[in-house]
Amino acid sequence: MDQVRWGIIGCGDVTERKSGPAFNKVPNSTLVAVMRRDAEKAADYAQRHNVPVWYDNADALINDPNVNAIYVATPPDSHADYAIRAMRAGKPVYVEKPMSINAAECEAMNRVSRETGVPLFVAFYRRALPYFLKVKELIDQKVIGDIRYVQIKLNWQPYAEEVGENPSPRWRVFPEISGGGHFHDLASHQFDFLDYALGPIKTASGFARNQAGLYKADDIVVANFEFESGVLGIGSWCYTVNKEQRIDETQLIGSKGKITFSFFEKFIITVEAETGSAEYTIPYPEHVQQPLIELIVNELRGEGKSPSTGETGAKSNKILDWITAH
Fold first, then answer.
1. What is the DSSP annotation of 269-299?
2. Which CATH superfamily is domain 4-123 in?
3. At what angle do helices 182-198 and 130-140 cross, to 10 degrees?
């Protein structure tokens, strides 16, 4: 295809800044239609973002002859359904992360992609962000020698809508919609990038519990994992601490030093090695998904390969399933 004409299914918050505007900023790419079940909100989004067509029905968007690629930006419980319908209609799909609510649904999506020959991509955009590419470059250059182990720490306080007299948690903490809780939403990014930077994780286990009772999803997870390369990993995620304990830090410990970086909140990478210390500050672009969207558009035009596909995206769901099984 020469020009990629996108339609969005689910034009909610994630599409306002992270992704939506990028479709018109990437060369040979245009956002031509959006869909949301709430017609008023769909029309409002289209008006604000100068999108010519809006729908309140997914099939209408999928069957729009002017749409030749589809971005599924709904919550994970509907990813498989919409993606499969779009692929069976012959239209490449870019789906939000996590790819689906579990590994079985991811496999069903990939099976349809293989059967139809229609490409499937996942919005694990850290594989294309300069900040994370710098981390991968430092690993590949063996700046800290051979990687021995990975340590992930993520502590966050509850979101405002999860506490108080009349709490109203969002969909991310309803397992039937998201597949789990905040761990599924955020750790999916972490495991996907670690797979990209360090190679496949061959096994993982852990414990997932609900300690605070603010919602029914797990709010604390601890895990161990092992890469095929022999690198080991440990991680802890807690979403019910006070704000003074908030931390987002991942460390790569090597034979000759360590790399410290953040997955979500900071733009600084710190290196402590035998040859000396260094610090890199690499802010995110205005639209964080734009670099990945550009690579996807290039692949659809026959000019390269996206680093994030349905096959790579399914891996993090498998790891999440392994860790939260107990």
1. EEEEETTEEEEEE-PPPSSTTHHHHHHHHHH
2. NAD(P)-binding Rossmann-like Domain (3.40.50.720)
3. 40
C-alpha 81/C-alpha 72 separation (Å) is 10
Give 51-82 pLDDT, tens digit per residue. 999 999 999 999 999 999 999 999 999 999 99
Whether 147 and 253 have beta carbons less than 8 Å apart is answered as yes
Measured distance CA(93)–CA(152) in Å, rounded? 31
pTM of the model: 0.96
Structure tokens, 299: 């692949």
Element (H, E) at 113: helix 103-116
In degrees and rounded to multiples of 5, residue 140 shows phi and psi of: -65, -30
Evaluated on CA atoms 310, 316, 319, 323, the torsion sign reads: negative
- Residue 207, pLDDT > 90, answer yes
Percent of the chain exceeding pLDDT 90 equals: 99
- Cα–Cα distances in angstroms (integers) from residue 261 to residues 154, 200, 220, 258, in the given order: 12, 20, 21, 10
- Return the CA Rg of the chain: 20
CA angle (81, 83, 89) in 5-degree steps: 105
What's the topology of domain 130-283?
A: Dihydrodipicolinate Reductase; domain 2 (3.30.360)
